[in-house]
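User: quick one, sequence for these tokens?
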């Protein structure tokens, strides 16, 4: 008789979870997701803006290295591509100055805007128009610029 009870208990342990237990777990997971997802999305949007700001700072520094080697900044028409591929007729170019070509692409997948000479108080202007690709905006749509970091 004790052997029957032991095997019955063993079978009971091996059966798994009941439907109610599974529904309770799913309900808890659903509540956690409902609270967590909006916060995660908020952090993701600000992370792209922060990444653009850091990339712009790095590009300004890299352009200074380019200028030290060549004696000048790239023209507006040469653009940031001059950091990756040597422009025609440029002497002293020791690049590529960026390891990856996507270093001149903003977090939203568009090339950074570049101007030389700078119009906003610096030698050069580098900027991204944010997620909406239009001037101005807030949050993820805000412009990220080299002159706001000076």
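Assistant:
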């Amino acid at each position: 008789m004790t052997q029957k009870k032991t095997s019955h208990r063993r079978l009971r342990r091996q059966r798994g979870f009941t439907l109610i237990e599974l529904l309770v777990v799913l309900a808890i997971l659903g509540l956690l997701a409902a609270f967590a997802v909006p916060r995660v999305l908020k952090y993701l949007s600000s992370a792209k803006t922060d990444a653009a700001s850091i990339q712009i700072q790095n590009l300004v520094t890299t352009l200074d290295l380019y200028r030290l080697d060549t004696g000048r900044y790239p023209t507006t028409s040469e653009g940031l591509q001059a950091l990756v591929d040597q422009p025609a007729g440029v002497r002293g170019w020791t690049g590529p100055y960026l390891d990856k070509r996507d270093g001149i692409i903003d977090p939203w997948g568009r090339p950074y805007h570049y101007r030389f000479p700078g119009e906003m108080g610096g030698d050069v202007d580098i900027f991204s128009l944010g997620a909406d690709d239009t001037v101005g905006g807030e949050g993820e749509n805000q412009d990220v610029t080299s002159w706001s970091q000076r």
